[in-house]
Amino acid sequence: MTYYDSSLTINSRRGVLTTPGAWRRNQNTVAFGGAKTLGPVAHTVLLVLMLAVLGLIYLTQITKTSSYGYQINNLENKRSELISQRQDLQVENARLQALERVQQSSVAQTLTQPASVSYAN
């Protein structure tokens, strides 16, 4: 037999006395709230932050690429300077070897040194 009151429930058969909001048998004592939702302003702020982060990542990649391009340009300039210097040294080497060959040739060996030299004033 059950008696009802406005704020008290008495179940005489089971001997349980409960008030509204009190714990009862075979019921969970922890109630989990629903998922928290974000408002439109928070969504907008998050979207702007994500776009800013993606923009910064893009800028770092572009900057890194341009710095590599700058280094490559410097190395190519140095390479062309070294190639030019090498060609100049090859010409100088050929010139010096040619003079040495002329001095060691049989015709140069038969030449004689003049006894006296006079210059016109």
Automatic annotation (TrEMBL):
Coiled-coil zones: 72-99
Keywords on record: Coiled coil, Membrane, Transmembrane, Transmembrane helix
This protein's name: Cell division protein FtsL
Organism name: Candidatus Chaera renei
Stretches that traverse the bilayer: 41-59
Top-rank taxon, per record: Bacteria
